Amino acid sequence: MAVATSTSTSAVPAAPPSAGGGYAVQVTSQRSEGEAQSAFHALQVKYPNQLGGRAPIIRRADLGEKGTYYRALVGPFGSAEEAAGLCSGLKAAGGNCIVQRN
Prior knowledge:
The chain is an alpha+beta fold. The chain is 30% helix and 27% strand. The protein is built from three helices and four strands; from the N terminus they run βααββαβ. A four-stranded antiparallel β-sheet has the order 2-3-1-4, covered by helices on one side. The chain is globular, with a radius of gyration of 13 Å.
């Protein structure tokens, strides 16, 4: 999986984990980078308490025959518990998410 800083908004190729945090929370996956950006911003409006003020990390994921997807994540988080806390709050508000290890 690729790693980017929390201010990165462009897709990046796969890279080793960053020292900045071992976990991220995926909030959407779309067929293009632009759609991932748009979907993330829509989620920020819908869930301002959970996602407001956060910049998306967009990661390109080649799923072989299924195609290429662009995942919008928030993070990085230093622990699985921190990431799970954000994800739990988002789910409680009606959203969906997946905690991922970088």
